[in-house]
Amino acid sequence: MNNEQQLKLRTLLGDYPNVMPLKRGEVKSPRLTFDFADVKVPNTAFKRVVRDFEFDFSELAIATFLQAKSFNKPLALLPAVIVGGKAQHASIVYNTDQGNLSPKDIEGKRVGIRASSQTTVMWVRGILRAEYGVDLDKVKWVTFEDPHVPEYRDPPNCERAPAGKNIKTMLLEGEIAAACLTAEDAKHPKLRTLIPEPEAAAKEWVKKYATTPMNHVLIVKQSLLKDHPWAVKEIFRLVGEAKKAAGFPKSPDFDPFTLGLEATRRGLEVAIDYAYQQHLIPRAFKVDELFDETTATLGK
């Protein structure tokens, strides 16, 4: 098939090791080409995914997809985790200048988060609720960004940080009691993880739930799935080939980039449960609702 007959897809995909063979052209298709968007940090373009529908094929945070699904956005999920495996127990920290805090101690206090609907925040809050008994509705969540899906409204116990404020600065200056920070921002002598011994706690969580917290998944436009189901199958094949070419999984006991419905089912179940508990979605989907006859059979 020559280039004129190839289907060209506008694509948003980060420079992750598990997909770099595809982005570098080492894994390719005779039927598809990809127009990769020049976006260094993909989550900065997620509004373009769910508001403008700019991309035929893209990655998307799982919490954002679930919200998009709730509001009937014309996007379809593939059973493919493209960013995952990171334990989130160490993602929430507090300032020791304010004294020692346990997870339950944040009830009644202000906690900084990038956005109420951020996937990392969803995982952290779900862990705090399920494992440490934190009443999430008793926490005042201080946000800094709008949700990607515009129809979603933050719950009443959220407030927007004043314009120009920085989440880490607010934490260090005692304006908030705790905050969800990146690993780099959390590196400060005054900051300590809210969850004690987070690495050990994360291992126990993975053992208990038989999954790891998925972050970004793959989606396509509904129109692509409807008009060219073969292209969706080809995308999935290429992603699998790229993952294999990159040498993943590194360990037979741990695969952060699961592919196929049954491999991703448990992670999706927990994500849906957490999203529903936190009022991010109006009802808890069944996993099988998220797929059709084409996407449900990918990887089989």
Walk me through what this model shows.
The chain has 300 residues and is α/β, with parallel strands linked by helices. It has 2 domains: 3-86 and 212-297, Periplasmic binding protein-like II (D-Maltodextrin-Binding Protein, domain 2, 3-Layer(aba) Sandwich), CATH 3.40.190.10; 92-208, D-Maltodextrin-Binding Protein, domain 2 (3-Layer(aba) Sandwich), CATH 3.40.190.10. It is 30% helix and 18% strand. The protein has helices spanning 20-23, 46-50, 62-70, 119-132, 167-172, 198-209, 222-227, 229-245, 261-277; strands spanning 7-12, 32-36, 57-61, 75-84, 92-95, 110-113, 140-143, 158-160, 178-180, 191-193, 214-221. A 6-stranded mixed sheet has the order 8-7-6-9-5-10. α4 crosses α9 (261-277). The longest helix is centred in the C-terminal third of the chain and has 17 residues, at 229-245. The protein is globular. The model has no long low-confidence stretch (mean pLDDT 96).
Primary descriptors:
18% strand, single chain, 300 residues, six-stranded mixed beta sheet, D-Maltodextrin-Binding Protein, domain 2, alpha/beta
Q: At the fourth CATH level, what is the homologous superfamily of the largest domain?
A: Periplasmic binding protein-like II
What is the residue-mean pLDDT, rounded to a whole number? 96
Which stretches are low in confidence, meaning pLDDT under 50 for 5 or more residues running? Answer: none
* Class by alpha and beta content: alpha/beta
Largest sheet: 6 strands, mixed
Radius of gyration: 20 Å
| Strand order in the largest sheet | 8-7-6-9-5-10
Succession of helices and strands = EHEHEHEEEHEEHEEHEHHH
Question: Could you name the CATH class of the largest domain?
Answer: Alpha Beta
**Distance between the first and last residues' Cα:** 26 Å
Kindly give the count of domains: 2
Instruction: Assign the CATH topology of the largest domain.
Output: D-Maltodextrin-Binding Protein, domain 2
The number of strands is 11
Helix content: 25-40%
CATH architectural category of the largest domain:
3-Layer(aba) Sandwich
The gross shape turns out to be globular
What is the percentage of strand-forming residues? 15-25%
Q: What's the number of helices? A: 9
